[in-house]
Design a protein that fits this description.
The complex is a heterodimer. By secondary structure, chain A is α+β, with helices and mostly antiparallel strands. Helices cover 15% and strands 22% of the residues of chain A. In chain A, strands 1, 3, 6, 7, 11, 13 and 14 form a 7-stranded mixed β-sheet that branches. In chain A, strands 2, 8, 9, 10, 17, 18 and 19 form a 7-stranded mixed β-sheet that branches. In chain A, strands 12-15-16 form a 3-stranded antiparallel β-sheet, with no helix packed on it. In chain A, β22 and β23 form a beta hairpin. Chain B is an alpha+beta fold. Chain B contains 26 helices and 14 strands. Chain B starts with a helix and ends with a strand. Classes of the chains: A alpha+beta, B alpha+beta. Chains A and B meet through loops of A and loops of B.
Chain lengths: 698, 715
């Protein structure tokens, strides 16, 4: 039996509540669950604790066992009989599961990393790319820029070991590194681990930091924020790192014999496929799904670089070829060169297409449709008059269809398809006008900021869907899709009790931001780099932080970037990722970028973006800018209030550097979106309203 | 009980109906759209067969499209495209014994249009692997892409179909999705009461609709090379189809061993004449060629041209023709090799050749009620002459006509002007006595040809040479028209095998060699180790024709039995044997095929001819109808259950163990004397009767299981 941890990437979120927490949602747009002391759970009702402090979101991990009979895997439970290989001798042992020992290593490397300058660095940093805190030059001192609490281990059986903190002074035997006292808030911990048992299932909760950010700089004006992403002297307490586990079992037999001396002893098996945990900022509107989710980005990488679905994207003739072995670099390289889209792939309407098409309309709960750029320019409503009417969009061409009906449905689909921003159109506001096309004069979708709307160096002004999303919608547009409801094919949303490991991998990621990455939400553009993956959705672990090494607590100083010497040859993507390597690209502190990722004046006049004159700012004679939103699903703009009407979500926190500084503490007072108890589908009430805003503090 | 009973039994629905039932049941009450097709299996069969579900063919195209495929497996009923093949003469074969591809006994209850599944009734030719390649089958099985990769398994919204039902549907597709079951009717599907009535001897076992080689193929027995005049119309058509298919690959003849010309050229480059390898080399040559033919149709063998049988006709023809025209293009060949006009040829040529020429062909086609044309013309030139078309006057038109004649009969070629000087032919054409005489020659070299060290042409090869020269003949237009060859293909060793009649000619040579071997066991070539280039085989490898999987037979009648039911008595249908076969055969034989090992102990089988009510009490002594009595030897099973079951027909590839001890056995009973006695009493219909007896002389059940009985005649 092979063991894997799911989800492959778990997402925890900071909160200033010392103890209050809820569980990360495990489906796209799902509400988080609250965990009861008896292990049961129900959807969260309050996002804040009794004192108005934001509860943390716990990332929950589980161990699944796989073998030939369990291709979908099954979660390991206490008392399960497992067959595995005894690591000391290679003998086959049957054991009874007693416990799971979890080891996690979180770190924050932001302050030690390069400055974030939009897309510069996605394909490697140039030798002149500046470091953050460049005035700190001594390697030993730079090592101190990493918040490194060392690994922690928990297990459920020994009550004393159920909880462990990534806190200062909580790791005897390890040389920790924490920043000095900070203003306004010091970072004393990156969070904690809790081993829990739900039913017979042994699980891990990872809780992140408390949203504390501050600067160690003293003097007039300090602390100060002067940049959306790079602020020397600053630290925050988001983090990331590997999650490994060891299954502890009592030996029942060895190679079929029950007389072996080790029978009755406890032994263990390390999880072969470990996971990763990312700690991010709070999700204020968890039910609003991003136009592009982190799952869709990771899925796009999995599909196009790892043969995750070789029937959709693979090597002709698409007759069920096996995906390449991700461990075989040569085979993988060859596959990537020869793979292509299967134009006979039929996506499912309600599984693959409709969820994407409903997202723009749901954004009405996080910004004001009515006042925004002429409202809803594409009329994304699904009502009879809208362009997103499912009765027209969901019906593929079928035998015996009325030709007029078919043509009408095609036009409806094509109008949306032509309005979608395609690869190469990242810097176009509208499609080049062509009266023969159904999207004539329409703004390209999505109408959201791209990975770099800030400068004309490596620009990427507007967001577009992933290649895989566009392929799926392209198939739909030409009529190659399946309406599963017409075909009696069930589209099952998996029950909590029957979640497969893959359901968890994707469901959890679906609540993370998939763009734009400037630097992004939980993680930056690094998430779309195939080099960081060991297999689809799985981060490649640096061997210096492997399950075995971590489980045996061998401390290793974390690596530093570029011009400085690194302790070992670790610290490269080829080797694998270390603790802190996913979040280190993000803004420091996260609150500054979070505050500014509201809307943006985007310069859209210069078509030949800086090819000849890289420093040119464009043609001032025709200077046109367009105010564009970032990702209001994560950082709402306007929300419906419980009292009725709409209000700016971050009222009182201006879009300035000073506002950014205010956000460093004010984030905890902002409101969350929750279901409107008065809502019915027909009464015109908004479905979601803002709750739990600490108005008095803002 | 009569055959009528079979029709009034509540029969299972046709396979097509059953397929629809299975799918309906699995779908239940759900109504998935299936992309607008709805219950696609209820669509008209033609539509169903072409339907696609999200770009996947529910029923795959027949696998491996091949440019020659239409020839190998004609999809269209031959009734539309082709004239029925001519009835052979002389002598005609048994009446009703075979089945033409256009009707006759096999069509009872069906009607021509659904024959073979072709035509308007939906369905196409059989194609192995087609079912497995079909989206419907993949969907039912839950195979890619219906394994969740793209679709869930079928039936959507309904239930999965059982594995056995999937196999049933798959084989229905493999068989070309026949709308009705006529052509696939087998004994296994005959109503059980009839099977039992037959097993007890109350009902006749009908003459098998299969050709004798069909039966051989299915029962894994050696095949029969028949007298070309005794081929059933179906056998002749299959043979022609194979040759047509092989010729279809002639464009690639240098490298493609499927092509007819490829094989013809082997003779040009390697043939052995005038010494002892003459017989053995050609035996090998025919063997390889026949194997190639059987790749296309495993029931086809090389028929033989029994020369003396035609002596009277040849001599008459030469005399008549020479008197009338003075031409040396004056002899006759077996009718299977002649050329004739068919309706499609007229259609194809209309407007492409001058109208008067076309009218001439039409007149020829209609002349004498079509009888002249049906009989065929012994050379293409003679057809031209009979139609009043001057060969050479319109070369382009000639070419078109010749191409059409070759299409009508793939066994005919233009470069054949059979005949010769009357005096020479009169002198040399073999009589039956001549053949008997050369078979009496004891010395192999004198019969065949001499050894390497002392080589000379033997008697058999001498006659063979004559036939070559006769059937190639001299081209009357040589020297008169530009580019005309002097002789026909059969005249020259370099071209001879390009004439399909070559193969029948040499089949007869080989038959005489086999006959000589039977009469003179032990005799043979000097050097059995010699290699028969270009093949890797040695002379000794071709010594026994049974090792090569064939035997020679003038005519044969097969009666299939149900191998799953024990027979206590057996009664075949009374079968008309044509007087020519009856009068002219060297041996008559009754065979019992694939007699299974019986665990109930030994038994006796009494064999009668034309004794329809034979029982245990029917006298044998002094009974002209009694043929022989044979005994079986078996016994109680000493192993576990299934130990004495019939072993599998085919062995695994690397199963090197010797023959399985329970391999079903065959019995051969010489019926020559009994047939002669009855024929002398004026009998022309023959019926085989068997009675199974225990060792105490009482009827014995559970003793005789077998696959068939046959009545055979040898030349």
């Amino acid at each position: 039996m092979r063991f894997k941890i799911h989800p492959a990437i778990g997402i925890a979120r900071v909160g200033d509540s010392p103890d209050g927490f809820y569980l990360a949602p495990e489906q796209a747009g799902g509400m988080p669950n609250e965990l009861n002391p008896d292990g049961t759970e129900q959807p969260v009702t309050k996002f804040k604790d009794g004192q108005g402090r934001v509860k943390r979101q716990a990332a929950r991990f589980r161990v699944y066992g796989y073998d030939d009979d369990l291709k979908q895997g099954k979660e390991i439970q206490v008392g399960d009989q497992i067959t595995t290989v005894y690591w000391k001798t290679g003998q086959q042992v049957v054991g009874e599961v007693k416990d799971i020992q979890w080891t996690v290593y979180l770190a924050n490397k932001k302050a030690s990393w390069y400055e974030f300058q939009q897309l510069d660095g996605e394909h490697g940093y140039g030798p002149d790319h500046p470091l953050r805190n460049a005035d700190v030059t001594n390697p030993d001192e730079r090592q101190q820029l990493i918040i490194d609490p060392g690994p922690q281990t928990v297990s459920y059986t020994d009550k004393k070991q159920r909880v462990a903190h990534f806190a200062k002074g909580q790791n005897p035997g390890y040389t920790q590194s924490f920043p000095p006292p900070l203003k306004p808030n010091s970072v004393e911990t990156l969070g904690e681990l809790r081993a829990i048992q739900q039913g017979q299932s042994l699980r891990l909760l990872v809780l992140g930091g408390h949203g504390n950010s501050g600067s160690h700089k003293k003097g007039f004006g300090q602390p100060v924020i002067h940049h959306y992403a790079n602020n020397d002297g600053w630290f925050d307490d988001v983090s990331d790192g590997p999650v490994t586990a060891r299954v502890i079992y009592k030996v029942i037999s060895v190679d079929g014999r029950t007389t072996d001396p080790i029978v009755g002893n406890n032994s263990y098996s390390d999880v072969e496929v470990p996971a990763w945990c990312v700690v991010g900022y709070p999700r204020y509107a968890p039910m609003i799904v991003d136009i592009v989710t982190m799952d869709e980005v990771a899925y796009d990488v999995a599909v196009r670089y790892f043969g995750y679905d070789t029937y959709m994207y693979g090597t002709p003739p698409f007759s069920g070829q096996k995906p390449p072995d991700p461990a075989d670099a040569k085979a993988l390289g060859l596959w990537r060169k020869s793979a292509q889209w299967n134009t006979d792939y039929y996506p499912y309407f309600y599984r693959d297409i409709w969820p994407i098409l409903t997202r723009p309309q749901n954004y009405q709960y996080v910004f004001d449709f009515d006042t925004f750029a002429g409202g809803d320019p594409h009329d994304t409503s699904s009502g009879l008059e809208g362009n997103f009417d499912p009765s027209l969009l969901s019906v593929p061409p079928y035998e015996g269809e009325d030709p007029d009906e078919r043509a009408k449905r095609r036009t409806w689909r094509q109008r949306i398809w032509w309005a979608l921003r395609k690869p190469g159109q990242e810097n176009l506001y509208t499609f080049p006008p062509d009266p023969s096309l159904p999207n004539y004069l329409l703004v390209l979708m999505p109408f959201l900021c791209g990975d770099n709307p800030l400068s004309n160096t490596v620009p990427s002004k507007f967001l577009r869907l992933t290649d895989t999303q566009l392929f799926i919608l392209g198939q739909w547009a030409v009529g190659k899709f399946i309406n599963e409801r017409q075909e009696d094919i069930p589209t099952t949303v998996p029950e909590q009790s029957s979640l497969t490991g893959t359901d968890l991998d994707r469901g959890v990621l679906a609540n993370g931001l998939g763009g734009a990455f400037c630097p992004g939400g939980e993680v930056a553009w690094i998430i779309r780099n195939p080099a960081i993956y060991a297999e689809p959705f799985r981060i490649r672990h640096s061997p210096y932080f492997s399950p075995r090494v971590l489980a045996s607590w061998q401390p290793n100083p974390l690596s530093l970037p570029g011009p400085l010497a690194t302790p070992q040859d670790q610290g490269s993507m080829q080797v694998g990722l270390e603790p802190g390597d996913l979040t280190k690209y993000g803004a420091v502190p996260w609150q500054s970028d979070f505050n500014e990722c509201s809307n943006q004046p985007v310069d859209i006049t210069y078509a030949q973006w800086s090819v000849i004159e890289p420093q040119s700012v464009g043609d001032p004679a025709a200077d046109v800018t367009q105010t564009t939103y970032w990702w209001p699903s994560h950082r709402p703009m306007e929300v419906f209030t419980a009292q009725g009407g709409q209000a700016p979500w971050s009222q009182g926190i201006p879009q300035t550097n000073a506002g950014d500084l205010k956000m460093v503490t004010a984030w905890a007072d902002l409101g969350f979106l929750n279901v409107n108890p008065d809502y019915t589908p027909t009464n015109g009430q908004p479905q979601y309203v803002q709750v739990e805003r600490n108005d008095e503090n803002l | 009980m009569s055959d009528q009973t079979q029709d009034t039994q509540p029969q299972a629905a046709s396979r097509y109906e059953r397929v629809k039932q299975i799918l309906d049941a699995a779908q239940g009450s759900a109504t998935p759209s299936y992309q607008g097709l709805g219950r696609f299996w209820q669509l008209p069969l033609d539509t169903f067969m072409k339907a696609t579900l999200y770009n996947i063919r529910l029923i795959a195209e027949p696998v491996e499209p091949d440019p020659c495929d239409d020839i190998i497996n004609p999809t269209r009923s031959c009734c539309q495209d082709e004239e029925p093949p001519p009835q052979p003469e002389p002598p005609p074969t048994q009446e009703g014994g075979g089945h033409s591809c256009c009707g006759g006994d096999v069509m009872a209850g069906g009607g021509g249009e659904s024959h073979g599944g072709g035509g308007g009734g939906g369905g196409t030719k059989p194609s192995k692997g087609r079912g497995a390649a079909s989206g419907l089958i993949k969907g039912l099985k839950g195979e890619f892409p219906f394994d969740g990769t793209q679709f869930p398994p079928l039936m959507w919204g309904g239930q999965r179909v059982s594995a056995s039902d999937i196999i049933f549907i798959q084989s229905w597709i493999d068989d070309g999705c026949p709308a009705s079951d006529e052509t696939t009717l087998s004994l296994a599907r005959v109503a059980q009461p009839l099977v039992l009535a037959r097993a007890e001897g109350y009902e006749e076992h009908p003459l098998s609709t299969k050709s004798v080689n069909d039966f051989s193929y299915e029962t894994n027995k050696i095949k029969v090379r028949k007298n070309v005049e005794c081929l059933t119309p179906d056998e002749l058509e299959r043979f022609r189809r194979v040759i047509r298919a092989m010729k279809c690959y002639d464009d690639f003849h240098q490298y493609d061993q499927r092509s007819f010309r490829f094989w013809a050229d082997i003779h040009a480059n390697n043939c052995q004449h005038g010494w002892e390898q003459f017989l053995t080399w050609h035996r090998m040559y025919l063997y390889y060629f026949e194997q190639q033919m059987q790749d296309i149709d495993p029931t086809v063998t090389l028929p033989y041209w029994d020369w003396p049988m035609y002596r009277d006709n040849v001599l008459a023809s030469i005399q008549d023709t020479q008197q009338q025209t003075g031409s040396l293009d004056n002899g006759t060949v077996p009718r299977a090799y002649r050329c004739r006009v068919d309706r499609k040829m007229l259609d194809n040529l209309k407007g492409k050749i001058p109208d008067d020429t076309w009218m001439n062909l039409k007149a020829l086609f209609d002349k004498n009620g079509g009888k002249d044309n049906d009989r065929g013309f012994n050379s293409g030139l003679r057809l031209f002459n009979a139609a009043g078309i001057t060969y050479g006057a319109d070369p382009a038109g000639d070419k078109l006509i010749i191409a059409e004649l070759a299409r009508v009969n793939s066994l005919w070629i233009w470069n054949r002007w059979p005949g010769g000087n009357a005096n020479l032919i009169f002198e040399a054409w073999p009589t039956p006595e001549d053949i008997q005489n050369i078979l009496k020659i004891q010395n192999f070299f004198s019969f065949g040809s001499g050894p390497d060290s002392n080589h000379f042409f033997g008697a058999c090869e001498n006659i063979h040479n004559l036939i070559h020269n006769f059937s190639g003949g001299a081209n009357p237009n040589f020297g008169k028209l530009p580019g005309e060859p002097q002789y026909g293909y059969m005249q020259s060793a370099g071209t001879t095998a390009r004439d399909p009649i070559f193969w029948a000619h040499h089949s007869n040579v080989d038959r005489l060699y086999a006959e000589w071997q039977r009469l003179h066991p032990g005799g043979g070539p000097d050097d059995p180790e010699d290699v028969l280039a270009p093949w890797p085989n040695q002379v000794k490898d071709v010594e026994a024709i049974s090792d090569l999987g064939y035997e020679y037979m003038k005519s044969a009648y097969v009666f299939e039995t149900d191998g799953t039911v024990a027979l206590t008595r057996f009664k075949s249908a009374a079968t008309a044997v044509h007087p020519a076969v009856l009068q002219n055969h060297s041996r008559a034989e009754i065979r019992l095929h694939k007699v299974q090992y019986s665990t109930s102990g030994g038994a006796f089988v009494r064999v009668f001819l034309n004794e329809p009510d034979a029982t245990a009490d029917t006298p044998t002594r002094g009974n002209d109808h009694f043929v022989a009595q044979l005994a079986t030897f078996s016994g109680e099973c000493i192993g576990g259950p299934g130990h004495c079951d019939v072993p599998p027909e085919s062995r695994r590839k690397y199963d090197l163990r010797p023959r399985h001890r329970k391999t079903p056995g065959n019995f051969r009973i010489d019926a020559t004397e009994a047939v002669r006695r009855l024929a002398e009493q004026g009998e022309t219909n023959f019926q085989v009767n068997l009675v199974v007896l225990d060792i105490d002389g009482t009827p014995k059940p559970n003793a005789l299981w077998m696959k068939g009985v046959s009545l055979n005649f040898k030349d």
